[in-house]
Design brief:
The complex is a heterodimer of chains A (418) and B (176). Chain A is 46% helix and 14% strand. Chain A is of the alpha+beta class and 418 residues long. Helix content of chain B is 82%, strand content 0%. Classes of the chains: A alpha+beta (418), B mainly alpha (176).
Chain lengths: 418, 176
């Protein structure tokens, strides 16, 4: 048999040769050193070309760049995606490992910090910085429009909360995950929580057992206030996070609950400190956290305090109206599931959409491309998006003219594909 | 084609098609648009006999047609998109090393002959030789040779670019 040519070798390596020819190549390769060397070389080229082509793939779309979860405007105010009624997911690992760890760690750290902060603040009667900053959508959007968690996580979360909080669960109906979201009404939830005895659910108990030996940051914080109830934890869990992070934070809170009696006396003295304006602003008793945590927490709370965007609906709208600038757009770009049930969302609005940064002039307006996902639109229909009034507006363009435009409420999800 | 059939096609081929187009065009948004248009065209077909090769062929032709027809507008949009990316995403999503690798890969891929490049990109998306031949209007027998040439050239070119880059960096270090 003649030596193998390069094309045949590649076809053989690709499994594209007919059986008889493939057998001949195999037999020849076993006895011919030259062809064996060529095959080895071809394998190298094959592997190398695949690797080179993979370099062309984009960064997974669902990775949150560090520092982008809360962007800062030119005027020093900060804003987050929740200002637009959207939810940042916790990044999931879809690409090579090197992309994930630092971002995930950053997101997890911020989440745990936020949960801890809110847990503490939720026990205070007065409305403090974090209380208004964390459930941003409660202020930035009308009640019922806020969607703060991944729907699957929410469903599971609601079930757990239903066990723990009983009648205090804000809304019933587990069939539609988005509809089961607790509305962000921290004050009524607290009122209910005082009437309800703190009775840990089996899940809570398991979690408590799992982490009991390690009362850490959240536990230390919760010592400041002995009366934490499941509904209070429900409010704390409005912060988007991973399920495991939630469980850990919850378990830590439970550990703290168990230690409440022991720290009651200390809490009383700290409660006095909380009455002072500065203590209230930081919302965390200085003694209750270790130095490093305190520094981070102080930075976080101060950043939130600086942001008029999260204070009231009006100021949020005004601020965001001014700052539809690059960081805002950058924060909003990604894939979303649009929540149905909103009056403004018409039936023809795609259920899933990817908001791209590409800007296009439509008539006199500059809009950005919105690509429907998972379904095809008629050829003359294009979707675009823009920011307005502190919300994401979806535009339907038919034949070059905007036919329809409305705010959407959406849950962010990882983008599929390269 | 009914909606159910389209959905099946979409679920099966959207991701590889967008990845193929993204690698081909270097622009994810453009790739999404072309992919969308491709599926719309599929919707208008009564029946597709060789669906994967048909989709990849149509997507390839759309890229060609659009590039021919509307080069200026596209360039403008590309500029806008690039500008946007530069302004908004420049430092963070990529490490310098990855950005560098990506630029080299883009250069190496762009240096291939069009047919070699398309065959290689299609093969990377799992198309078999027959499908590639159908999509590109070639004979099945020539695909192995085309791929062999494409892979060799890509690897060699990439290596050469890397070597040139290291030489340049080494030279500048030596000069300083």
């Amino acid at each position: 048999m003649q030596h193998l040519d390069e094309g045949t070798i590649h076809a053989w390596l690709d499994g594209e040769l007919p059986f008889d020819e493939s057998s001949r190549v195999t037999a020849h390769a076993e006895v011919c050193d030259k062809c064996t060397a060529m095959i080895a070389e071809a394998r190298g080229f094959l592997a190398a070309s695949s690797r080179i082509l993979r370099n062309l793939d984009e960064v997974p779309g669902d990775v949150i760049p560090p520092g982008k979860t809360a962007a800062t405007n030119a005027d020093g105010t900060s804003f987050t995606p929740r200002d637009f009624g959207i939810v940042l997911p916790v990044p999931r690992r879809t690409g090579p490992r090197r992309w994930i760890p630092s971002r995930f760690a950053a997101a997890a750290a911020v989440t745990v910090l936020a949960v801890g902060t809110y847990t503490i603040l939720n026990r205070s009667d007065s409305r403090t910085a974090s209380e208004i900053a964390i459930p941003i959508a409660a202020d930035a959007a009308p009640r019922g429009e806020m969607q703060l968690m991944d729907s699957a996580a929410l469903s599971a979360r609601n079930e757990r909360l239903a066990q723990g909080a009983g009648a205090a669960t804000p809304r019933a109906g587990a069939a539609a995950p988005a509809a089961t979201l607790p509305t962000a009404t921290p004050a009524p939830q607290r009122a209910v929580s005082r009437e309800e005895p703190a009775s840990p659910s089996p899940a809570d108990t398991r979690a408590k057992d799992a982490v009991a030996p390690a009362p850490v940051f959240a536990a230390k914080e919760s010592r400041a206030q002995p009366t934490q109830s499941p509904p209070a934890k429900a409010a704390a869990a409005l912060v988007t996070t991973t399920d495991s992070a939630l469980k850990k934070a919850e378990a830590r809170a439970d550990v703290a609950e168990r230690d409440n009696a022991r720290f009651a006396a200390r809490s009383e003295s700290l409660a006095g400190a909380r009455q002072a304006p500065e203590a209230k602003r930081l919302a965390v008793p200085a003694e209750s956290v270790v130095d490093a945590d305190r520094r981070r927490l102080a930075g976080e709370v101060q950043a939130q305090m600086r942001a008029p965007a999260v204070a009231t609906t009006e100021s949020a709208t005004n601020t965001l109206g001014r700052v539809a600038t690059n960081p805002t757009v950058r924060t909003a770009v990604g894939c979303y599931d649009i929540l149905r049930g909103e009056e403004s969302v018409r039936a023809d609005v795609p259920s899933s959409v990817r908001l791209a940064s590409t800007q296009v002039r439509v008539g006199s307006r500059r809009l950005r491309l919105a690509v429907p996902q998972g379904q095809a639109a008629p050829s003359d229909v294009r979707w675009y998006w823009s920011l307005g009034g502190g919300r994401i507006l979806l535009h339907k363009v038919v034949g070059g003219a905007v036919e329809y435009e409305a705010p959407i409420v959406a849950v962010r999800r990882p983008c599929r594909g390269g | 084609m009914d909606n159910g059939e389209l959905e099946r096609l979409f679920n099966l081929y959207h991701q590889p098609l967008v990845r193929y187009l993204t690698r081909r065009l270097g622009d994810r948004d453009w790739a999404e648009e072309v992919a969308q248009e491709t599926f719309l065209r599929a919707l208008r077909q009564e029946r597709l006999t060789s669906e994967r090769s048909w989709l990849f062929a149509v997507a390839t032709n759309l890229v060609r047609d659009e590039a021919r027809k509307d080069e200026r507008r596209r360039r403008h949009l590309e500029l806008l998109a690039a500008e946007e990316r530069d302004r908004l995403e420049a430092p963070e999503p990529q490490t310098a090393e990855r950005a560098h690798e990506r630029a080299l890969a883009r250069q190496a891929v762009d240096g291939l002959a069009e047919r070699d490049r398309l065959a290689l990109l299609m093969r990377e998306e799992g198309l078999n030789y027959e499908e590639i031949a159908q999509a590109l209007g070639m004979s099945v027998g020539s695909i192995g040779t085309t791929l062999a040439r494409a892979r060799r050239r890509l690897a060699e070119r990439y290596e050469a670019l890397q070597a040139a880059e290291s030489g340049r960096i080494g030279g500048s270090h030596a000069a300083s």
